[in-house]
Design a protein that fits this description.
This is Transmembrane protein 18. It comes from Ilex paraguariensis (yerba mate). Keywords: Membrane, Transmembrane, Transmembrane helix. By secondary structure, the chain is mainly alpha-helical. It has one domain. It is about 75% helix and about 0% strand. It is built from 4 helices and no strands. The mean pLDDT is about 85.
């Protein structure tokens, strides 16, 4: 649970800056997203392992063969975090494209002014 809460806090507070080439935040977001999606991928194996060993840590077997319990409590929040990171990254990329096009238009206007002179 602490790992999920830590990822939620990191995903919500990690806004990828527009200057991605100068910042490591983009790479942190990318690596966190890969780790989150790996956790979702391994959920089925984790469900099988926990279903086989539930007596050592629980009083009742919550781990059904279809993995519904683990999907709701493990994979669901991880997928929400992955979507938050994806949306933040796409938003930052859109800002970067807008900034790049504005700089390109300014450069073209400067070149046109210099040609007229």
């Amino acid at each position: 649970m602490a790992w999920e809460y830590g990822n939620v806090v990191l995903a919500l507070h990690m806004h990828t800056p527009v200057d991605m080439q100068y910042s490591q935040t983009f790479y942190v977001a990318l690596h966190e997203n890969v780790l989150i999606l790996t956790g979702v991928y391994l959920a089925e194996r984790l469900n099988g392992f926990l279903g086989d060993n539930w007596k050592s840590f629980a009083g009742q077997n919550y781990f059904d063969p279809h993995g519904l319990f683990l999907s709701v409590l493990w994979s669901g929040p991880l997928l929400v975090m992955a979507i938050i990171i994806l949306v933040n990254t796409l938003f930052a990329l859109c800002q970067l494209i807008v900034r790049w096009k504005r700089a390109e238009l300014r450069q073209r206007a400067r070149e046109a002014r210099n040609k007229q002179e």
